[in-house]
Amino acid sequence: MTPDERQSALETIAADVRGCTACRLHETRTLAVPGEGSAETEVVFVGEGPGLNEDRQGRPFVGAAGSFLTELLGTVGWGRSDVFITNVVKCRPPENRDPEPDEVAACAGHLRRQLAVIDPALVVTLGRHSLGSFLPGARIGQVHGTARPAATDLLPPESTVFAMYHPAAALHQGSLRQTLITDMGEVPRALLAARERAAAFSEGSTAAEPEAVAGPEAVARPGIAADVPAAMPAADAPSARAAASTSAPAPGADGEPAADQLTLFA
Ligand code: SF4
Fold first, then answer.
1. Number of domain units in the chain
2. What is the distance, to the nearest Å, from the Cα of residue 260 to the centroid of all Cα atoms in its chain?
3. Is the CB of residue 90 below 6 angstroms from any atom belonging to ligand 1?
């Protein structure tokens, strides 16, 4: 798929989202929020659902949590236009409640199509509901800051998933702010590992086994600039698809409060 074809395909999906009535969330939305960013990126960030500001503007992560996400990207030298940002559900759940399972299921087709077009090496989940769509059964308090092979029909098996708390969680639970910054510092390294894993898959190598993916057992979790450059070289930027393709074709238990308690979608 050429860049123009990829961009056109994403615009077609966005139009489908804006006209979608597949679940009850369309009844209360102001604007659907398909997502935005680079069609050429290797990294897709997936949140849970639009909040008040997103619903009004039709853009993802434009409130306070969005500002923190932009800040987090900046800590590794990336900008919003270097990645693609979207959500599990594209329409705002009323009162910022958690999306219902049937709503997530109804919207999965849109997300699956977006991921098929972008074909990212790495998906970064933001929050419990996004994590649950990509790594069912995983607990965010245990897996945040680590990468795992995708365990979902939303992605091909050679894709890698990196788990993070939702940025809004840090706005309401200050101790998570540094956790999110530290975890974000691991994302460039996870991208490098994801590229290697995808390449191994394409070559049919056994190196593509799950244990080859960066995780708490495989990679220590240093601070932002410990041994990974804060700003990745240009060839390692998440939008460097061409460069990569040349070398490789409930509060408490999980530490993240519930959406309605924390205005997770704000
Ligand atoms: Fe359609 Fe998704 Fe919006 Fe539901 S949340 S109406 S499935 S776009």
1. 1
2. 21
3. yes
